[in-house]
Amino acid sequence: MIQLTNDGAMAKLSGMGMDDMPILGYTPRPAQIGPDWFSRYKKLCREFMMSLTDSVEELAMMNLTQDEFMALITGRALAPNLSFRFRIPLVLGGTVDIDNMFMCRTFPYSHLLDRFIIDQYGNDQIWLPNPARKIYVPIHGTGGGDGGNATSDRLSQIAAQIVAARDMD
Question: What is the mean pLDDT of residues 118-132?
Answer without folding.
Answer: 95
